[in-house]
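Risk register update: the risk of archive-format incompatibility is retired. Evidence:
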Amino acid sequence: MGESLYIIISGLVGLGIGALIVGFFLKGNNKKIEEEAKEKAKIILREAEMNAESLKKDRILEAKEKYLKLKSEFEEEANKKKAIIITNENKLKQKEQVLSKELEQIKRKEAELDSKKENLSAQMHSVQVKKDELDRVTNQRIADLEKIANLTKEEAREQLVEMLKDEANTKASSHIKDILDQAKLSATKQAKKIVLDTIQRTATEHAIENCVSVFNIESDDIKGKIIGREGRNIRALEAATGVEIVVDDTPEAIIISGFDPVRREVARLSLHRLVQDGRIHPARIEEVVAKTEKNIDEEIVEIGERTCIELGIHGLHPELIRMVGRMRFRSSYGQNLLQHSKEVAKLCATMAAEMGLNAKMAKRAGLLHDIGKVYPEEAELPHAILGMELAKKYKEHPEVCNAIGAHHDEIEMTSMISPIVQASDAISGSRPGARREIMDSYIKRLKDLEDLALSFDGVNKCFAMQAGRELRVIVDADNVSDQTASQLSFDISQKIEKEMQYPGQIKITVIREMRSVSYAK
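Archived output:
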């Protein structure tokens, strides 16, 4: 405010000085004007001083008012903060009083705990004293009893344990025996009932497979065409199919003999086609046999699919379906393997349903239980283990795999389906007229005879003829010479004598044929 007043006064003084300067310059011209100017300057100076004084007072008043206002605000704010500080101090005092009370309570509790601890220690000491006294009295009494009984404590304990053990074993054995007798009685009755119901509800076939097929012809004139010039046609047919063709005096019939049903079926169908066609010569025979073998493979798949549909079994792997079809051309102890497997499947389903188990899974296991018997490759494993490995390979259920592998007790049974399959297999195979033991051993001997000859190098095919009295061996002409063929025949005969048992004698015929084929175009 003082600086503003100073500026105003300085301005007024400057105006006055300016006026004097002007008057000074005009002095020479008009003295009157100079006097007036001085008078005006004085008047202006006085007015300026008055205005400056009035302005100074106004500014001072404004400053005082602002100061009072700021002071009032500051005092109000200070009073508020002071009130807050006083309130907080009161709260702190209250909390301090509460904490002091709690601290006092804690100290009282600590004192009480110390007192209780001292009392507990005194009680524990008293208990220990009493325990020591009791142990002393007990030991004294035990010693007195040992003197009376002439036994130590350990000996008395052992005698008591042995007495209790014998008594418990006696009671347990008696109880277990009663339970087992009752369980066996009930189980035997129930099992007999289930088996009898199953057998009664399952239709069976009593026909037995043999090793001979009969091919009927319209007239005996066809026999000459089948035999061919110097017997070349019949030899070509026997070499291609691996069976023996018997053309004798039987009217309008030709006998096809062979232990392998697939070979007999191939020979029968091939003969049927050749007779219908009328062209019978070695080249045509080989062509027809090859086509027939292909058709038989397709028929095997169709038989497998038809069997699965008949039994209501779904989701089998195509290879398993093919093996099911191959069962049609295999036999087990003279019993057709497919009919046996279907019968076992039906028996398993009936038993499983009576026992409240999964009938579909039991039927599946029953159908596949002998699948290892039709595996196309030779294996050293038992057919049950081989069948189990095949089922695992083609993602069958573990219970089905176990039932296949355990139906001859090669592995441990782990499911309820396994004993059902075993029992059904026994029922199907043991019924009167179902199997012939001699037939199976005869077929096995012929199969072993062929396998023995096939084990030699250079042998392409081998066929057992004349009910196992002749073995025809077809060798590779490029690898086996005439001299080697003679030696091979001798080696095979020596090995047969050493490793096999057979009635009579076996004729080994080694056939070495060289063919040269050209085409004229």
